[in-house]
Amino acid sequence: QLQLAESGGGLVQPGGSLRLSCVGSGFTGDAYNIAWFREAPGKEREGVACLSTNDDSTHYADSVQGRFTVSRDSAVNIVYLQMNSLRPDDTAVYYCAATEVRTIVQAVGKCILMDPADNEYWGRGTQVTVSS
Q1: Phi, psi of 118 (to 5 degrees)
Q2: Spatial separation of the C-alpha atoms in residues 127 and 71, rounded to whole Å
Q3: Is 14 helix (H, G, I), strand (E, B) or coil?
């Protein structure tokens, strides 16, 4: 059973940075999309960044493009989300999620959409609060 666990959240001032980590275990397939989602109070869960392990391609939501970077250390099965220039509206619970993908076309399509329903595996989330 694939399991994910997030860490690295906390309180940061506007303009600051945080790096979230998503540690995975139980991978049995050849390739996965690993995506970061966030959910703010009263709002729907939204995708912010996605990485496909078959070619390390990435995709970002417009709201975080240029500020957030998703990367991975395949040796230890960790996917990172580096968040810079944080704003109060980045405040949310951040989740990592995974889905197995079979082809590059499928992987790219799912990363672009970042639909929560496409992901079978979820971590429990980590709180990020951006406030002065």
Answers
A1: -80, -10
A2: 20
A3: coil
12 three-state secondary structure = strand
pLDDT for residue 75 is more than 90 = no
Q: What does each C-alpha distance from 88 to 40, 75, 127, 130 come to in angstroms?
A: 11, 34, 13, 5
Is pLDDT at 30 greater than 90 in this prediction?
A: no
Contact 11, 72 (CB under 8 A): no
Cα gap 24→95, rounded to integer Å: 13
pLDDT value at residue 121: 96
- How far is the C-alpha of 4 from the C-alpha of 14, rounded, in Å? 28
- Scan for tokens 């509206």, then name that residue: 89
Structure tokens at 77: 């099965």
Amino acid of residue 71: S
Distances (CA, A) of 81 to 8, 77, 105, 106, 118: 9, 14, 23, 22, 20
119 token code pair = 């992901």
